[in-house]
Amino acid sequence: MTRPGEVAVDAMHEWEARHATLTVKWHAVAAAEQSQGATAVTHWRNRLGQLQAAQRDLVQTGRWRGGPRTLLAALDVQYRELAMTAGLAWLLRSDGHHGLGPALLDGLLHHLGIDGSGTEAGVRAVLEEQRDETRADLVLYGGDWTIVVEAKTFAVEQERQLDRLYEHWRNEPAPCFVFLTRGQRVPTTAVDSRDQWRALTWDQVADIARVAATSMTGAAPGVHDYIATLEAYHRV
Fold first, then answer.
1. Does the reported pTM lie above 0.85?
2. Residues 114, 176 contacting (CB under 8 angstroms)
């Protein structure tokens, strides 16, 4: 007859045997996983090395890029109204060193529906023209036409700004008042002059300039950088 104590001892021996078997199996599983892991790590390292080599090749050929997209952006002027408006005035000068001739001015005149030409005698662009307490960002004077530009990037309009501009330049020959902005932006200070302002975006300026640059050969590098800046930072 088997005694209770002997049953307990047999059960303990059975569990110890099972535990030993499971331990051996778990060690085998762990060893296999470690082997697979080592293989995977080696594969990852090889793959990472390949990716790093590919990146170096892209850097070497100038196709891996970071930072500002244009020189104007590197100079931190891509959103500065004065700088970007001055660049536009430079491009609108028919005899400028940009090499576009009157192409950009002709394109702008056509876009605005103005019967004029960049080759007219006496055409001039004036930046920051002051009359009393009102300053126009850019004024283009032609023989029998005038374009008054108020340019904005992120700044808000000043008190009665567009109405004041209209009051001071409305007696110029055939004045066209242009509100130049990033994206479509409704003017808030054109109250009395609300029907006198034409909307123009920097994005549209980029398109007009791109057509002008394409139509001419030998455009200055600054032309392409200016256009690229508008396309990269003002398409909204």
1. no
2. yes
